[in-house]
Design a protein that fits this description.
This protein is an alpha/beta fold. The chain contains 11 helices and 14 strands. Helix 5 links the parallel strand 4 and strand 5.
């Protein structure tokens, strides 16, 4: 937590459009400390989409310290929380809604904010999980009385959380994370919580652990931040090419992206997923699944009491989604090989 961390905190906060940045050890730590900094109380609940598997661990760690509860909600066909998916899940106890910008895709956060205003629930904190969305933006047009304006993802909520895991759009050589906010009081709480709850050295006022962004990682991230927009443009080019090439293939559908997405993952839906993935593997194309198991279907979160069928869209996505290669260094030759291999599979 020296000069490189301080400089990166300021530079990344400015890039996103926020005042305060607090570097932490991981993206999971970012979610954990962000929620703890909101000072939730017994009886409060936080709402999280059921398909955001990694986020849930940080959320539950934070809620366990305050006797608050975790609630889940379903998503739209693109894997994102929507106004419609929220309507059946917000209750009087809901104090926080965690919006996950999944796959680098952008949640309609302005629409959700307007909905919360309509139902007179502006008291609900919005926390953005931007672990997969560094550099994405939302065009808000005239919805904020500004024509053609844009804001970076991560600048809408009371807090936003980022991961710098090596495979992210902005990735360190090891782990790292960041919390952003415009609220000075909350920023100070996070700073205390990331370092033993200390308000000054060896003077702890809150029981907490330690989560520090390493100086070396911060130094690398500062340099990489200069290239982030160009890397995201390359990701977008590859993603749009995939969509174009797959548009007339029966049996595969692309998860839609909103304008401004940073295309962290390129995700398709395939009914016979295991057979498809094996074919791709045999022909030299690695694939992955984000995510194969919904939160409520894991043993560790069975205590939440949800049953199979409670979140039908999430459960269907978990059975069908496949991630294809997508990263800035992917060459045109490699990109075309991926496309041809997919076409060959569905031509069988």
């Amino acid at each position: 937590m020296g000069v490189e961390v301080s400089a990166f905190e300021a530079e990344f906060a400015a890039y996103i459009g926020m005042q305060y940045g607090i570097g932490v050890g991981t993206g999971t730590d970012a979610i954990t400390l962000a929620l703890r900094a909101l000072n939730l109380k017994k009886g409060d609940s936080a709402l999280l989409p059921a398909n955001s598997y990694p986020s849930v661990f940080g959320v539950q760690l934070a809620l366990a310290t305050t006797e608050s509860t975790l609630k889940l909600c379903d998503v739209g066909v693109d894997g994102l929380v929507t106004v419609e998916s929220l309507k059946n899940y917000i209750t009087p106890s809901t104090k926080v809604v965690i919006l996950v910008h999944l796959y680098g895709n952008t949640v309609d956060i302005l629409g959700i904010q307007q909905y919360l205003k309509t139902i007179e629930r502006e008291d609900i904190y919005i926390v953005e999980d931007c672990a997969q969305a560094a550099g994405a933006w939302i065009d808000y047009g005239d919805r904020l009385s500004v024509v053609g304006g844009r804001k970076r993802v991560g600048s809408f909520g009371i807090l936003s959380c980022f991961s710098f895991y090596p495979s992210k759009n902005l990735g360190a050589l090891g782990d790292g994370g960041m919390i952003l906010t415009n609220d000075l009081t909350i920023a100070e709480r996070v700073r205390h919580l990331r370092m033993y709850g200390e308000v000054s050295r060896y003077h702890s006022e809150t029981i907490s652990g330690v989560s520090r962004l390493d100086e070396l990682q911060a130094a690398f991230l500062r340099e990489e931040l200069l290239f982030l927009d160009d890397w995201n443009k390359r990701r977008t080019t590859i993603s749009k090419y995939y969509v174009q090439q797959f548009s007339d293939i029966q049996g595969i559908s692309c998860v839609p992206f909103a304008d401004g997405s940073c295309h962290h993952l390129f995700v398709v839906r395939v009914s016979d997923r295991n057979r498809f993935m094996e074919y791709m593997r045999v022909h030299g194309v690695d694939t992955s699944i984000h995510y194969p198991i919904a939160i409520h279907q894991t043993k560790s979160f069975a205590y939440l009491g949800y049953q199979k069928g409670d979140f039908p869209i999430t459960e269907q996505l978990c059975e069908e989604v496949v991630s294809l290669p997508l990263y800035p260094e992917l060459t045109d030759e490699e990109m075309n090989y991926v496309v041809q291999t997919v076409k060959d599979y569905f031509a069988q």
